[in-house]
Amino acid sequence: MSLSRLLRLLAAMLTLATALLVGRVATVEWRNQDLAAVGRESVSELRRALAAAEMVSRERGPTNGVLGDDTPPQPQRRERLAEARARSDAALAALGQVLVDGPHDARHQNAERHVQQARDALQRARAGVDALSAVPKAERTPAQIRAQVGAMVAVVPLIAPAISLMAEEAQQALPVLGDDVQGARMAAELREYAGLLGSHFTAALTAQQPFSAEERAAIERTRGRIDQLRGLLDLRLRTPGTADAAQQAWQQVQQAYFGRAASLVDQVVTAGNGDGRYGMDPAAFATAYVPDMNSLFALRDLLLDNAAARASAQARDARRVLWLTAAGSAVLLAVLAVSMLMVQRRLLRPLVQTAGALHALARNDLQAPLPVARAGDEMAAVVGAVRTLQDHTRQRQALEAERDALIEQLRALSNTDFLTGLPNRRAFMLAAERELAQARRHAVSMVLVLLDVDHFKQFNDSHGHAAGDEALVAVAGAVRQALRAGDLVARFGGEEFVLLMAHCTAQQALAFAERLRAAIAAAAVTVPGRGAPARVTASIGLADAGTAPSALADLLDQADQAMYLAKEAGRNRVVLAATDPISPAGAGSS
Asked: Which residues form the GGDEF domain (predicted)?
């Protein structure tokens, strides 16, 4: 194996080992970053699910106030209820959209179905509330009120599958989020049971009578569940490592809900178990009870913020490791590349070049330089020889480029009339064939125009060939100015010019040709030795190709015949093939 191949193999093995190591680390950290993103998104979606449950739960407060109000309800209470309903609808719609945009597996579809059921159940419950609130207060029975309150309470459990799904997704993506996620769920559940407890009081507060046996049982069950959740949250939030902010929020809950709100509940329970003299209606109870109860939402949101912050921190850590890994691998590969480059430049490349020069000499190639020994770097002479070869190659390429440019210039000159600068007959014939082929395919109307300078030979004989050349240049200028964009024009030979006009009818071409004829007749021709400029005219023949043009030769023949008809009719005229000559106004023969 040659030295060059051995070094390349070694470099490839080192590069592969580095790539495998970096790839492994990058794969792990990239997955960690993706999981962190999934966890953060799941926490955000969980927040929306809990917010939907919160809004529905909050709606029960103004609902209970309306159920306990006189008929019709006070406008302020009805307005608060409308605002609460709007918030619930928006939160449920946002949650539904999250599920629609997410994966379409069975669990997401089940959660989406339950959310839709919650929306439907909420609408039915609202309809019942509105119907009952329209009944005079004295005619509302506690059983009816409890039924409507129960219908509202039954909506929140339908959102539970979505909450469970999003909490599990967050924990599966990042297990470290488990404590905060579960704590937030318990805080939200505790808030729901606290709201449920207040809803149990609505019928009794409305009727201002003691609790029924059924209400007492429901109240005790709910208070038992609240105490259970309180103990679980207290145990979770007092463990070492819990953030100070979370512990402070929990202390606020203890003071607000389990202090002031619990005292209010005890007062209502005492009255409900006694004579039923509460001293307040459902709206007044909600006004005093709900603000302290909402401290649980602050705890829930803080725990969700902690979970989102943990996910963001993991994502940052993963990105940091990725950057460090990328930087380390880049440095390692750069050192390897520099080493290989130095070996390549100082040893391998000169050796290969020297071998090439020797092989050239073996083939009797006297142009190939031979290495020359010099003082200093042993390979400097070889490098100098290679540079010389490169200079020679560049010179050859420059000459080849110059030759190609000259060929291109000659090709352009072969297609251009040297006197007028217009395309010549050869260029026109090639371009016109292409245009006619396109016209046949796309049914484009075309007209061929052929013009000949009148009495050009006499003009030459009278004024000299220099004046004749000036006349042709003047005619070419008039043609060039009249030409439309996209039309073909050429000096066809001698004093003849040809145009091929696309998207042009016979009438349009006649009008164009008449303008061109007048422009030629008005063009001034400079005559050497003569003060006043001379004038020339032209006879113009047109061949209408229609939308199915025939062969170019046929069109040229028709235009040529029309042009000679114009000359026979007196020159300085325009004639359309197969029609009578058209005499220009005021034009005479010339």
From this structure: 444-579
